[in-house]
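note to self — DONT lose this again. spent like an hour looking for the file last time. sequence + predicted structure for the chain T wanted, 133 res
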Amino acid sequence: MIVVDASALATFILKEPGWKVMIEYIKYCISVDHILKEVSNAIWKAHTVRGIIDDSIAKELYNLLKSLVGINLILEPEEKYLDRAYQIALKSGITVYDALYIALALERKLPLLSLDNRQRNVAKLYGLTCLPL
C-alpha cells in the first residue's frame, strides 16, 4: 500500500502524460479524504477552465473517481493528520494540503506517490520514499 496525493491521482483520472505509470500504484492506495475535493476540482478545471473535456466526460471521470473509494482508494479523515501537517507546512513552506499527504505517509510508514517535486523534496527530508522513483 502507498499514500497517493492529488497530483498523482488527478494525472491518472484525467489520463494526462505519464498516467499509465500510476496504474499499478492506484490499485490499492490510501489518502486523506481531502483528495476527493482536489481531484474533483482538477476534473472541473479540465472541463470549465481548460476546456479539454466535455460535460459527459467530466461526469464519467467524476464517477470513476468516486468508484475507486473503498475499493482501490482507502480514505482517512484529514483531521487525524492536520496537526502534524500544519507543523510540516510551517517548517517546510509547503501548503497544508500537501503536508497532509506527508503526515499520513509518516504516520503509516508508507511511501508517497506524488508528482509535485516540492512536496517530494520535503517528504524525502522526513525520510519518506517517494514514488515514482
